[in-house]
Amino acid sequence: MKTILTGIKPTGEIHIGNYLGAMKPAIKACLAADGTSYLFIADYHSLTATHDSKVFEEIVYEVAAAWMACGLDTSKTVLYRQSDIPEIFELAWILSCFTPKGFMNRSHAYKAKVAENEENGKKDLDHGVNMGLFMYPVLMTADILAFDADEVPVGEDQLQHLEFCRDIAQKFNHNYGEVLKVPKAVKKDETKSIIGIDGRKMSKSYGNSIPLFAPEKRLRKLIMKIKTDSLPPEAPKNSEDSLALEYFKEFATEIEIEKMLSRYKEGVSWGDVKQNLFEVMNREIAPQRAIYDSLISDRAKIDAILVDGAQKARERSKAVIQRVRQAIGKS
Ligand code: ADP
Ligand code: TRP
After folding, report:
1. Do 139 and 92 touch, CB atoms closer than 8 A?
2. Looking at ligand 2, which atom is closest to the CA of residue 155?
């Protein structure tokens, strides 16, 4: 039976791009998995950039509540908070002693920061780089190796980290024998890229997103802001180039989509299209929003689930760190 493991770095308000592009497919994959699946909130990875304690605390609860609200079955998938697993951090240190510094110099995230400094004419090219950011891939390696993961589903941007992980595990094993399981990266299908209400890729950094759990009134308001052309209601609409229709297709049934396509041909008002979009979207999100709202105001419940997840997860990570300690000669 395969062990599948992946991490979510909490970064702030969750939008429908995150939901459709990452959460929905991952939850489906977890439900379909026949082995053990581990999903964790990589909160200490967020600490490289989030230095406001209130925000740091908040985003962890938001992510946990959102995944639970969207149907993650925590009786099937072990959901835990990275910072609740001390073995990860011990392993991260041990592995850092087997990681050539040159690997980290080549890390995309670090190189991007250096390039940004260069572009901005900064004298110190390491400006704004803390050791957490520099060592990010080592911590990620420990996240994975601490659980003997077989497969790690990640997006394109994380593939380099998985290569580091495999290389570091092999270096360790080369010295001590087959102690660590070398995982396989599974590239997630990222054909789905959700566009924001201004027509660019939806991203919280562009301020063009529809928050997944926006209250109904705000959701409707944002939907009304979606870019359209200025054709009159009776004019046929172009179904090839309609953002509202793209969103509609994500939430509507086949029959509803067929119906909407023929209304586009006949001529339909944008107001009508957006009202219909609001209805199908809210139909899917409203029950999840209700669960989210109740969870987010019941932190003790979230904590209980995460603590239970950490307990289950540590059964695995304790065994791995035991093997590692023995291998390095720490009895
Ligand atoms: P943002 O761009 O808003 O900062 P993140 O980088 O935190 O989003 O993304 C978290 C996850 O959501 C990633 O797996 C990413 O691939 C997915 N995701 C983010 N934006 C989109 C989008 N517009 N369309 C599809 N998936 C997205
Ligand atoms: N670095 C990943 C991201 O930014 C999150 C992450 C942390 C992760 N540790 C991991 C993903 C381990 C997979 C496995 O999205």
Report:
1. yes
2. 15
Write phi, then psi, for 222 (nearest 5 degrees): -65, -40
Residues of the chain with pLDDT under 70: 190-191
From the CA of 48, which ligand is nearest?
2
> CA-to-CA distance for 208 and 118, rounded, in angstroms?
28
Whole-number pLDDT of residue 192: 76
* CA 178 to centroid of chain Cα atoms: 31
- Tell me the per-residue pLDDT of 60-96, one tens digit each, with 9 for 90 and over: 999 999 999 999 999 999 999 999 999 999 999 999 9
Q: Is the CB of 201 under 6 A from ligand 1?
A: yes
Q: Do residues 122 and 179 touch, judged by C-beta distance below 8 A?
A: no
19 CA to centre of ligand 1 in angstroms: 8
Q: End-to-end distance of the chain based on CA atoms, in angstroms?
A: 31
Give residue 34's pLDDT: 81
68-101 per-residue burial string, b: 16 or more CB within 10 A, e: under 16: bbbebebeebbbbbbbbbebbebbbebbbebbee
Does the Cβ of 154 fall within 6 Å of ligand 2? yes
Q: What pLDDT score was predicted for residue 157?
A: 87
127 lines ligand 1 (CB under 6 A): no
Q: Which tens digit of pLDDT belongs to each residue from 311-329?
A: 999 999 999 999 999 999 9
- The predicted structure's pLDDT at residue 191: 64
Under a CB-based contact definition with an 8 Å cutoff, are residues 25 and 188 in contact? yes
- Which ligand 1 atom lies nearest to the CA of residue 202? 23
Q: Does the C-beta of 204 come closer than 6 Å to ligand 1?
A: yes
pLDDT of res. 9: 94
* Interval between CA 9 and ligand 2 midpoint (Å): 6
**CB 46 less than 6 A from any atom of ligand 1:** no
Q: Report whether 144 contacts 137 (CB < 8 A).
A: no
